[in-house]
Amino acid sequence: MSNMETAMRETAARLLTEGRVALVLGYEAGSVPFKTAPTFVERAEDVGRLVWSPFCTNNLAVYLPKLKGVGRVAIVAKGCDARSAVTLIQEHQIPREQVVIIGLHCSGMVDVDRLAPIDGSLAGIFISMEADGRLTVASGDGRRTLAVGEVLQERCRVCAYNTPAIADEILGDPASPMPASADPFAVVAEMERLPAAERQAFWRTQVERCLRCYACREACPACYCRTCFADKAAPRWLSKANTVDENWMFHAVRAFHLAGRCVECGECERVCPMDIPISKLNRLLDRDVRERFGYVAGLDPEGVPPLGTFRPDDPDPGGHEG
Amino acid sequence: MSAVILRKSDLPAWARRLLASYRVVAPVGEGEGPVRYQPLASDGAVVLDGLRPLRAPKEHFIPQVEPLLTFQGSGKAVTIEPMAAMESATVILGVRPCDARAVTRLDDVFLGRKEADSLYEARRKATLLVGLACATPSWGCFCTSVGGSPAGTEGLDLLLTDLGDRYHVAVLSGAGRELTADPVFGSATDADAAAAEERHAAAAARMPALFDAEAVAGKVEWEAPVWMRHARRCLACGACSFLCPTCHCFDIQDEVTGEGGVRFRCWDTCQFGEFTRMGAGHNPRPTQTERLRQRVSHKFKYLVEEFGRMGCTGCGRCVEACPVNIDIRSVLREIEGGER
Amino acid sequence: MSEAGHLYVPNLAVIDRVVEETWDTKTFRAVFTDERIRKDFNYHPGQFQEVSVFGVGEATFCLASSPTRAGFIEFSAKKVGAVTIALHELSEGETVGIRAPYGNWFPHEELRGKHLVFVGGGIGMAPLRSFLNFCLDRRNDYGHIDIFYGARTPGDLCYTREFDAWRNAPDTSLYLTVDRGDDRWSGKVGVVPAYVREVAPSPEGTVAITCGPPIMIKFTLPELTKLGFTDEQIITTLEMKMKCGVGKCGRCNIGSTYVCLDGPVFTYAQLRQLPPEF
Question: Which architecture, in CATH terms, is C11-102?
Answer without folding.
Answer: Beta Barrel (2.40)
